[in-house]
Amino acid sequence: MPDTSSVKTGLPIQVVLEKSIGLAFPFIVAIVVSGIVLLIIGENPLDIYSLMLQEALGSGSRIAATLSAATPLLFTAVATSICFRSGVFNVGVDGAFVISGLAAATIGYGLPESVGFLILPVATLGAVVVGMSWLYVPGYLLARLQVDEVVSTLMLNFVAAGLSGFLVNAVFLSEKSGNNTTDTIPKIAEFNRLMPPSTLHSGFIIGLICLLVYAIWANRTPIGFEAKLVGLNQRFALATGISVPTTIIIVMVLSGLVSGLGGASHALGQLYKFSDGFSAGYGFTGMAVALLARNSAIGILLGAILFGALASAGTTIQLFSEIPLDLVNIIEGTVMIFAVVELGKITILRRRTST
Amino acid sequence: MPALNTQNDIQLSTRLGARAVYKYYGEVASNRGISFDARLGEIHAIVGENGAGKSTLMRILQGLEKPDQGSVVVDDKDVSFNRPQQALNLGIGMVHQEFMLAPELTLLENLVLGDEPVLRAWGPFSVIDWDEARRSGDALAKDTGVPIDWDSLSETASVHIQQLVEIIRLLRRGANILILDEPTAVLAPPQVEDLFALLRKLRDKGTTIIFISHKIKEVIALADRVTVLRRGEDTFTAEIKDVDVATIAHHIVGGIAEDTTSQSINLASKDAKLTEQNCLRLENVCAISSTAKSRALQNIGFSIRKGEIVGIAGVAGNGQDELIECLVGLHRVQSGRIILDDVDITHKSNAERRASGIGFISPDRANEGLAKLASVEENVIAGSHRDPTALIGPFRKLSYTKQMATKRLDALGVIYGDLTDPVSSLSGGNQQRLVFAREISGVPKLLLVAQPTRGVDLNGITAIHKTLRAYRAGGGSVLLLSEELDELLALSDRILVIVDGRIVGERDGTKANITEIGALMVMQGEVHA
């Protein structure tokens, strides 16, 4: 495995290649593991895999479906990486994504239609503000009171699920469509579709811009540099005059901002409403992408597309074969485990070098 | 040393040694054919610069690593260890630089940990025989002449007691070859004497001792023979009675450094431009201790003039770390005032203090002075990344920071491969020079320097001392903390001695001597108001 923990200044091609190898290893293991599972249930893994490949990337419309499935992951992976590279183990992106999705949807359908094209930016802004405030809380708790961020953000995910579930059933419940869902937003508030009839929408473009801005932020701004140093060594950062608490709060709020954009993109571009079960674990899949990519922008792009491909293949594959969707979960789970193994190696390395 | 001679006459065979040991880490050879032999009942010193291969050799002798070629020799026979336990079974025990005691267990529990005497051996339901444990500990402790309170927690025990327990623990488990890695680094001079007395006693009873040290004088005082390692090879072995400090120093550095610490004493006032103007003044500074092992600061008051180096001498944990952290803004001052150039900075943040002209060389280079996983460039420009000249609008000017990094590194002659290499790829001396390059670049008024040459080889020490002298000659003020009294005496204009968080004495750096300062360091009585 090449060491890609620091940003290398090589040819972009080389960088892409290095990242791809880093991404590939957990995937190869995952494919072997699910191949064994397929053999046990009496299927030919090669047939299934070629079917999956076709379903993921076989035609223009299938590619669009893959990119559409990758869209929320771009946001959640960037939101996660912002924190992870600063040594803040924020696992609360999913909660922020859900709660800001609810904000976007309610503003989207709640504003009078006469507001017109302004509904979209206002709803997006609302979602961003909600996302930022949501993650400000665990950021503040960590920075000022040393409350463990893994615990607080994990718990906030349950709060987000419970709160949004309650609100969508008790306060914002649609009178037209029944259970667990809000009214749909007006046509004018939608993110436009890029390749109808596929669900690929302009949120994907915003996701790409978000990724680009993240790369610039990380490599070219003083605060991005400070965040990296805080992630590598807090005592060093402190001794060189960097305010560690401020940096922690900033990265948490930025993570909330990106989660909020993601929630808005999903609510206004994909579903056109908020319903219970809004996030299919996007926050956690995004975390897997961030871990695989080791926080690099190129890695995130590749990883999000790979997971998007898995998701889009998985949903159609159960239509055409006996294979349940769970196979995709097995692959995702295995990838996640081995991505974390990589992370484990890095943290062990860190401990060794610090003694 | 009569015991030595008689034993050498009887027994010249190898008790523990190495035969042409090679060890590679990737492409780098850490040991390149090292051979040495320590005899029965001998204190054998192993000296060498950082990176000379000492640590690797010790790991091999202990069974922590296997040599790629060559072998370990025990009692004239080649042996091969797969696990450290096998080395221990042959009687080889190691006292590490950082003690391996469990901090939250008592000393007695630590003594028997892993080899507990039992009343009844019932597998997991065995009952530990604490009386027997205490008896065996007391019996072994008698030799040391130091009373040990077996029931105290090891984290509260003083450092030299912990070291004794570590040694007794190995003896109890049947070790008769002891490897000690820089055992005196943490001790005050009188405690060093106690340790040496114990080691001599053990040697006379037939224990073989391998003594790893940086300090040539200690080697001369204690050892019977010495082996010098340089760049992974054994370059010199001799009886101590046949060599002197200069010879050993010469072999360690390979004849390059002419200005070693031991010879550079009292260049202090020659190039000094002392003025009467104060740079820093402390008034009754009090602060709580930052760890359970160290002391709170009590009414610290002194001043540093412009162009003056003030040294702080003290046994580790007497408040010197708190003092420097209070000055740099990493530790809260409870009461009192810190005044830098007539400005009260007592409650300013670290960043504000840096801006007003304070540089800081951290005692903990690995974890505070540097970010080990970051690159050379990132380490040397950290803290200056927000300088207006380093920015274009909201963005960092990458080409400019690269230039700035190169300039700083070249100014202090730091040897590095590429700016993007991880800083951990540099040698200890170059890492420390990099820290100086960063901290001195803004030409601060005051440089707070702690343990500047810890883990730095002789050439590096010379370069760092030169840097500090040049800085002082330019009118800079320095607060210097060092465990090396030699270093304090060589550099300081004045030396303050700190005991229990109080300044207990002050001496003129050009006139003081080690014995006098060492006595003050362990004396509790003399209080200088």
Could you walk me through the main structural features you see in this protein, from its secondary elements to its overall organization?
The complex is a heterodimer of chains A (355) and B (529). Chain A is mainly α. Chain A has one domain: ABC transporter involved in vitamin B12 uptake, BtuC, CATH 1.10.3470. Helices cover 74% and strands 0% of the residues of chain A. Chain B is built from 18 helices and 24 strands. The longest helix of chain B is centred in the middle third of the chain and has 16 residues, at 189-204. Chain B is globular, with a radius of gyration of 25 Å. In chain B, 33% of the residues lie in helices and 26% in strands. With 529 residues, chain B is an alpha/beta fold. At the A-B interface, helix 8, helix 9 and helix 13 of A face helix 11, helix 12 and strand 20 of B.
Question: What is this structure's SSE topology?
Answer:
The complex is a heterodimer of chains A (355) and B (529).
Chain A: H1 12-40, H2 45-57, H3 60-84, H4 93-110, H5 119-145, H6 149-170, H7 203-220, H8 222-232, H9 234-239, H10 244-271, H11 282-293, H12 297-320, H13 326-354
Helix pairs in contact in A: 1-12, 1-13, 2-3, 2-12, 3-7, 3-10, 3-11, 3-12, 4-5, 4-6, 4-10, 4-11, 5-10, 7-8, 7-10, 8-10, 11-12, 11-13, 12-13
Chain B: H1 2-10, E1 14-25, E2 28-39, E3 43-48, H2 54-61, E4 69-74, E5 77-79, H3 84-89, E6 92-95, H4 107-112, E7 118-120, E8 127-128, H5 130-141, H6 159-172, E9 177-181, H7 189-204, E10 208-213, H8 216-222, E11 225-230, E12 233-239, H9 245-253, E13 278-287, E14 297-305, E15 309-313, H10 320-328, E16 335-340, E17 343-344, H11 350-355, E18 358-361, H12 365-369, H13 376-381, E19 391-392, E20 395-396, H14 398-411, H15 428-440, E21 446-450, H16 458-473, E22 477-481, H17 485-491, E23 494-499, E24 502-508, H18 514-522
Parallel strand pairs in B: 3-10, 3-11, 6-9, 9-10, 15-22, 15-23, 18-21, 21-22
Antiparallel strand pairs in B: 1-2, 1-4, 4-5, 7-8, 11-12, 13-14, 13-16, 16-17, 19-20, 23-24
